[in-house]
Amino acid sequence: MLPAAAMLMKLLAIPLLFRIARLDFTTHRIANSNVLLLLCLGAASLFLAGLAQGSWWDLGLSSAAGLVLFLALFPFWLLKKVGAGDVKLMAVAPFVSGGADLMVFAIALLVFAIVTVMVVRNPMLLPSPAFRVYVEHLDRRRVVPFGVPIAAALIVTIGLQLAAQVVAALSS
Predict the structure, then answer these.
(1) Is residue 98 left, alpha or beta, with left meaning phi > 0 and alpha meaning psi from -120 to 50?
(2) What is the pTM of this model?
């Protein structure tokens, strides 16, 4: 029952991640309330999983990874290279993905970040002219909504975790 409840917490994070991505894409802002809610959902999921497994390793690893990411990205915020919301969202991401799946999250984030950079640098690859105008506007302002690839990578990570749990449940 506890693993199912832990997965439910992660599933509840998916609509919130879509909201964060949409708001970051349209307003270039990530609200503190959204990041805090995401932190609560991720920590609750890790707590429930820790209770079920009898091990707090995943929660500890996620906490350490979140702290390292915050400390690593904070100087980039001071230099105005990334937004404060992006730094906070990256610090919360290990709580949502879980310590065991940090590599999956990192690979997905790398793929989505490369796609984002390619789209911003080559807006003519996009199908809709209106969308191209918006992306060209992003390129002129030198603003890239980095919350979008972070949220997308977290959604993919949660999806892969859910698929693994379904496969494990069907095979037993």
Answers:
(1) left
(2) 0.90
